[in-house]
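Notes, p. 3: input format for complexes.
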Amino acid sequence: MKFYSTKQQTPPVSLREAVLKGLPADNGLFMPEYIPALPHDFFKNLENLSFQQIAYRVAANLLGEDVPAQDLERIVYEAINFPAPLVSLSENVHILELFHGNTLAFKDFGARFMAQLMGYFVRDDKNTLEILVATSGDTGSAVAHGFLNVPGINVTVLYPKGKVSNFQEKQFTTLGNNITALEIDGTFDDCQALVKQAFLDKELTEKLRLSSANSINIARLIPQAFYYFEAYKQIKNKQKPTVFVVPSGNFGNLTAGLLAKRMGLPISQFVAATNANDIVPYYLSSGTYQPRPSIQTISNAMDVGNPSNFARMADLFEEVDKMRNEIKGYAFSDEQTKQAMSEVKEKYNYIIDPHGAVGYLALKSYMGEFGENINGIVLETAHPVKFAEVVSPQIGEEVAIPERMRYLLEKEKMSIPMSANFEDFKTFLMKK
Ligand SMILES: *Cc1c(COP(=O)(O)O)cnc(C)c1O
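Output follows (432 residues plus pyridoxal-5'-phosphate):
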């Protein structure tokens, strides 16, 4: 399988190149040249398969030519080592909990799979791959956990001093081994600028094999298709049409769902749920793609004004009418989101995070417009404790850190304090 650039200004590349490079030189995004359908017997047998078995079959369908079966199976089993349970709130409303990984959000799926696949591709190389990642909290922890102990790869996380929560900080400063955390005396933008400058520095790039764990790497997208199959498996009444509701920011999650559908999963509709950053719902209604500066909301992982995966969606559909047939879009305010968190708690005794709440609202709107006789599945993208400061006051109840994560709070922080001056960062890297 080759991977082409959505901009088509560079020739298609191998999986290895797509994964290690991240981005094509023409600044498009990599896409698989074709998306084969899975065989009928796979779907007939779905309910007898474990999540890992399903994930392997889906991965092999796309990557089976490029990674030998045994290696691919090991990669998948290593990456997908936590469940994605479907919780039914009612006969029509289901929640797909994607937060059972190490950092309590769905990004663990993508980060872990990308880490394993990169590790596989560099396994015989003599130069260590040095991954630099700037974070305002979440990306850094998912990437750090994903790459922890992957041979041949080191990760350096840069984060702004005093600007991430204690729990977040513990997630990437307590790991040790191949993960180093730099506590930068500056802002998130400073951290990002340091990373960018490192990639442009000749001396550094000659000495070190630098890489970024880019969020638009194709290796992060593919594993996100796995859990659409796992969700469908868990639906009891499969007679009704399946509608996936995806709380969206950069639209990677939704794009992965489109891949799952192209592989044959019987998905009737997608619902793109956004906060005030309603670029895609606006595109679906008006036909005009109009990126804007992002607006800050309480569902802040979706505060994106120019969704990076829109290029992949546009590439898959080619025209807006085709996209409209498969995707409906709805957007909601913070006030509505807060009300929805209360409603879900009162009606179903379920604690939903602000991103999931936006999805819940979109499902209600969709049902109001197109009818209720469906299986509506809302992707719950994060554990509510990650947003406890908005969730707890709204529902009048503390949200507890899951038992399995409490040990982190006891662990000692190990980070290297550093100025936001590039020369300091460079000196640190040159010593590697
Ligand atoms: C990243 C993220 C999203 C948005 O996902 P995209 O794939 O960028 O659309 C939604 N919710 C949470 C909690 C996230 O971390």
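The chain has a mean pLDDT of 95.
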